[in-house]
Amino acid sequence: MSLPRIAVDAMGGDEGVRVMIDGAAEARRRHDQFQFLLVGDETRIKAALDDHPNMRGASEILHCDDVVGGDELPTKALRRAKTTSMGLAVNAVKQGDAGAAVSAGNTGALMAMSKLALRTMPGIDRPALAALMPTLGDNDVIMLDLGANTEADARNLVQFAIMGAAYSKIVTERDLPRVRLLNIGTEENKGFDRLREAAEQLQDATGLDMSFEGYVESDKINRGEVDVVVTDGFSGNIALKAIEGTARFVTDLLRNAFTSSIRSKIGFLVSRPATELLKHHLDPNNHNGAVFLGLNGVVVKSHGSATAGGVANAVTVAARLLEEDLTQRISTGLAELHAREEATFDNSAAK
Amino acid sequence: MSLPRIAVDAMGGDEGVRVMIDGAAEARRRHDQFQFLLVGDETRIKAALDDHPNMRGASEILHCDDVVGGDELPTKALRRAKTTSMGLAVNAVKQGDAGAAVSAGNTGALMAMSKLALRTMPGIDRPALAALMPTLGDNDVIMLDLGANTEADARNLVQFAIMGAAYSKIVTERDLPRVRLLNIGTEENKGFDRLREAAEQLQDATGLDMSFEGYVESDKINRGEVDVVVTDGFSGNIALKAIEGTARFVTDLLRNAFTSSIRSKIGFLVSRPATELLKHHLDPNNHNGAVFLGLNGVVVKSHGSATAGGVANAVTVAARLLEEDLTQRISTGLAELHAREEATFDNSAAK
Prior knowledge:
11 strands, acyltransferase (chains A, B), Isopropylmalate Dehydrogenase, phospholipid biosynthesis (chains A, B), FA_synthesis (chains A, B), phosphate:acyl-[acyl carrier protein] acyltransferase activity (chains A, B), 48% helix, alpha/beta, eleven-stranded mixed β-sheet
């Protein structure tokens, strides 16, 4: 099977060119059919490639000098879509030169460039940003939106649910991903009208490839009882960062506690395999790769501070979404929703 | 100094009468001037008091048979404000029979009863629910609102900031509590208009007893860099529960890791003092007592599953807020705000 190649913005992220190239090479060690279009400064990319003989014949370089700044306003970056490494990587997907793009650069700029170049899918009003998070269960949980849309109405939320379920089916291999709307209680009367409306629509939508199970509160996101958490970009961003911040807070407290006495230092050394397990489970690199859902093409955002292993995970997510044709799956989900809506309409009209 | 007594709803909470009475008794062991009005089933309260000779002469019982259910709708519970232990405890504050009320019952019902009996303070449009959370710094952080108001406009947020700062001054003893608005970025253009408006008003308000320092993202709440986090009830509830859930998630992972092998079990035993420190720091009982701010009277919500130690902490919070006259401090803060607004108005009019 031959996969379309993946465009990698080699210049984005806090760690520079080398970590992006090391990451691509690691992904190729895991999956030797991967092919790359590496976008950025040719001299630095070539220098980084010297360490990776496995990338020979598997990568082409697209040179450019311009880079989007980490703090740059998206509107400003957009003007340089045709000259920056980020813009060219996204554009390669538009032109069919690559099947997917991966960047560790400025999230807002990447979203803006991706929307402009790839356009929103038919049937989707607004794309959303989705990420994976660890759980106590067998698979990661997906949450969306995480900040692409500060607000979202009932219609947006229903579309997010369909997109999230399509993504979850691919990464978890669950037939019917368990989908819930984020709310501040599980009773029907909780939260906003838009949440109640979205819940009603999803409850009625029996033909969809998901199991809609009502509301979830933010203390239950990581229990392994839900596969897709649907919310607006403001609440999603608040929940995501609260989870990330608290995981760091607790591990910081643990480190302080373990170094507080000789006895606890010894205990720490003895139990190191256990704490390494914990570290591995919580390491953001193992859940790296946030996906822009709802575009005509696959764009994956790698965390700015990801390691080579993290970048390899983001590249693998991109490849998996291509291989399983995420965009087609979302279209099918939307068609099912619309078929149901029309049937409801016909029934009402017949009465 | 003689403090007004504290009304304790002995019937609320998951743990029953005994934990509430044990908690009151423990609070009195710490502060022997505390006096109580214990509201609920007389026979069970008397049985629980038998274990606590220190409560003799320090407590009066107000008998009633009726109890608010944990899942009861607030509107339904309100009709029984005059017959339930919760309603009578709050009413004792209204009548001047007690200075503050503590309950571990249904939060929505307690809020509704408190608003009806005590009314909102002059100058406050909507009361808010505030709680303490642990940090890496020297003191707890206060967050509000946590769900009393699903939505909040700029004016509400400014009032929440004033109420939160007054509360923080009492529990942290900081002269100028550091106040921030919860947002999904720290740049000026992030989030909603209402956040930008509230930020502008607080930035201009130089005479207030707080240091307003802009926005905070939810991954920075527990770093010890902020004393009061201000937000609407939906976002606040999402952030609070995400923090609580993740702290539990990480400690669950840690427990799993520590019991995964003989070696790590030994390591756990050796480092037990360290993990106990962690447990102590994160134990919700040590941060128990959410406060309804903005009412003509002090009402404290103890967590439904709090231990006697947790209840004692909630009682102590209530006593401390009475002693330091929280309500008066909020009035002063509001007067400062209004004085400033009028001065601004006079200046504008003079131009």
